[in-house]
From TrEMBL:
Domain Hexokinase N-terminal: 58-250
Record's catalysed reaction(s): a D-hexose + ATP = a D-hexose 6-phosphate + ADP + H(+); D-fructose + ATP = D-fructose 6-phosphate + ADP + H(+)
Record's keyword terms, sorted: ATP-binding, Glycolysis, Kinase, Nucleotide-binding, Transferase
EC number: 2.7.1.-
Protein species of origin: Lobosporangium transversale
Matches recorded under InterPro entries: ATPase_NBD (IPR043129), Hexokinase (IPR001312), Hexokinase_C (IPR022673), Hexokinase_N (IPR022672)
Stated family: Belongs to the hexokinase family.
Record protein name field: Phosphotransferase
Stored PANTHER family: HEXOKINASE, HEXOKINASE TYPE 1-RELATED
Domain of life: Eukaryota
Pathway recorded for this protein: Carbohydrate metabolism; hexose metabolism; Carbohydrate degradation; glycolysis; D-glyceraldehyde 3-phosphate and glycerone phosphate from D-glucose: step 1/4
GO cellular component: cytosol; mitochondrion
Pfam families, alphabetized: Hexokinase_1 (PF00349), Hexokinase_2 (PF03727)
Swiss-Prot/TrEMBL GO biological process terms: glucose metabolic process; glycolytic process; intracellular glucose homeostasis
Length: 517
């Protein structure tokens, strides 16, 4: 080993030690305030990088570590962009939602909802029992690539077919007398003109049906439903973050923030009408029923223009190859669709440079030889979580996955590097997620209020990805302080925010309009 290599090795070991100790300390202070130092040693020793190339580890650690010192500036800029979005169009969208009131938890009735997310479509029937209790049945279909990338009109016609299928099984075709109100949870940015009118602003998460950009998605769906003569009336349109907030409030009164960390990311929260200064006094919104309104922030666009996000060469590559370069930069560092793609880009780059999957003969793999691993989005978030969660001594899950999915043999060094890459990218995502949460809490001065700040969160990354939640909690402890976080902030896993939230929105709309549920 040359002196240069040896120094690199020392630096990598040091950085790995520091980063893991650091992540661990902060992610477990809620639970283990006294034993964290000892545990950080244990964690570090279980995440062995002893076979990995120290130079590679050092370079990636530099590229993907978000230092604590970056938080203050990021949180301040986040608050600035939230405020700008309330004042002017064309900044962070900060979309007024026409949802002016929160459920009490005592709502009752049976309501349909539709949940069009980034990966699946679900049609749901929710029975609200009151006292925060509900029961939901749903049917789920994966949205094919052809539907995501094809014309929007075809996507909506397909959705109406699925509603028909659901009604036939769950509601019986015969009840023609009844008109079913349906809450549409649509997880893409729409400019709302009323609770049941929303113009699609742009697609995210790889959808491309540009034929319907600028059109009212409720009308498109209702037309497709009417063409099939189904007795369903789409009475409300909400974002999945609004759904998450409504569903959490139904069970936990007092919740004022709803967030999704899933395929995409976004946040909705309760804002004072007086703060939404971009709404002119003569606009229809001025007929607001209360002095508050939910705002769909569309925070995925944070940092698009300010240059504040710590973007590295891999982020630049991902953005350039995405369907909307220059947009949703925060989402591209935080959410499931993109973090797995980032990991794939890093694997691919390392392989081409002879740092991963090198054959015994010394031959570096070419792009063609990497098979599906060379193709966009052929490594998904669920798999990334499974690899990161591989605790076996020889990292067997990683070995089997690369062999069965890409026909690639891995050495132990490869597997340690792969696991480390997943950890680096997901940890940065969680720490950036905490920045958004902290910005909202600070902006609304929630910690000065006597009651706890309840944040409802849904999405596969938050609910299923190993250590995503503890890393968010750890970062919040750094941004605020552990005692405050413990006493004042409750992160609550929403129970089916999109499905139940859609049903609650439909219910509240019926109530407002004096219609039966
Ligand atoms: C969309 C949001 C949505 C979020 C989570 C983002 O890509 O722009 O509207 O709430 O994904 O599903």
């Amino acid at each position: 080993m040359t002196l240069k290599c040896f120094l690199c090795y020392l630096k990598a070991r040091f950085l790995s030690f520091v980063s893991f100790t650091f992540f661990f300390l902060h992610s477990h202070t809620f639970l283990l305030p006294h034993s964290h130092i000892l545990r950080s040693f244990i964690l570090f020793s279980t995440m062995s990088l002893s076979h990995a190339d120290p130079e590679v580890i050092s370079r990636l650690t530099d590229a993907f570590t978000l230092p604590t010192s970056a938080y203050d500036a990021l949180v301040d800029q986040f608050i600035k962009e939230l405020n700008q979005g309330l004042a002017h169009k064309g900044q962070m969208p900060m979309i007024p939602t026409f949802v002016y009131e929160l459920p009490t938890g005592e709502e009752t009735g049976e309501v349909l909802s539709l949940d069009l997310g980034g990966t699946n479509l679900r049609v749901c029937k929710t029975t609200l029992f009151g006292k925060g209790q509900f029961e939901i049945i749903h049917k789920k279909w994966a949205i094919s690539d052809a539907l995501k990338k094809g014309p929007g009109k075809d996507l909506f016609a397909w959705i109406a077919d699925r509603i028909e299928e659901f009604l036939a099984h769950q509601c019986g075709h015969n009840d023609k007398e009844k008109i079913y109100p349906l809450g549409m949870t649509f997880s893409f940015p729409c400019e709302q003109l009323d609770i049941n009118v929303g113009k699609l602003l742009f697609w995210t998460k790889g959808f491309r049906g540009n034929d319907i950009l600028g059109q009212d998605v409720v009308k498109i769906l209702q037309d497709c439903i009417d063409a099939k003569k189904l007795n369903v009336m789409v009475n409300s349109l909400i974002n999945d973050t609004v759904g998450t907030l409504l569903a959490t409030t139904y069970k936990h009164p007092g919740c004022e923030i709803g967030i999704i960390f899933g395929t995409g990311t976004n946040c909705a929260y309760l804002e004072e009408q007086s703060q939404i200064t971009k709404i002119k006094s003569d606009a229809s919104n001025s007929t607001a029923l209360t002095d508050q309104q939910l705002i769909n922030t569309e925070w995925g666009s944070f940092g698009n223009k300010s240059g504040i996000l710590p973007i590295n060469e891999y982020d630049v590559h991902l953005d350039a190859k995405s369907s909307q370069p220059g947009k949703q930069l925060y989402e591209k560092m935080v959410s499931g669709l993109y973090i797995s793609e980032l990991a794939r880009i890093v694997f691919h780059d390392l392989a081409l440079n002879g740092k991963l999957f090198v054959e015994e003969s010394g031959h570096f793999k070419s792009s063609e030889e990497l098979g599906d691993l060379a193709l966009k989005e052929r490594f998904d978030g669920a798999m990334m979580g499974a690899l990161e969660g591989d605790e076996s001594a020889q990292l067997d899950v990683i070995e089997n996955h690369f062999l069965s999915s890409y026909n690639l043999k891995t050495s132990l060094s490869d597997r340690e590097t792969i696991k480390y890459i997943c950890q680096l990218i997901s940890t940065r995502a969680a720490r950036l997620s905490a920045v958004g949460i902290a910005a909202l809490i600070k902006k609304r001065q929630m910690l000065t209020k006597p009651n706890q700040t309840i944040v409802g969160i849904d999405g596969s990354l938050f609910n299923k990805y190993p250590n995503f939640r503890p890393h968010i909690e750890g970062a919040l402890n750094e941004i605020f302080d552990t005692a405050t976080v413990k006493a004042k902030i409750a992160l609550i896993s929403a129970e089916d925010g999109s499905g139940v939230g859609g049903a609650i929105a439909a219910h509240l709309t019926c109530k407002q309009k004096g219609l039966p549920v």
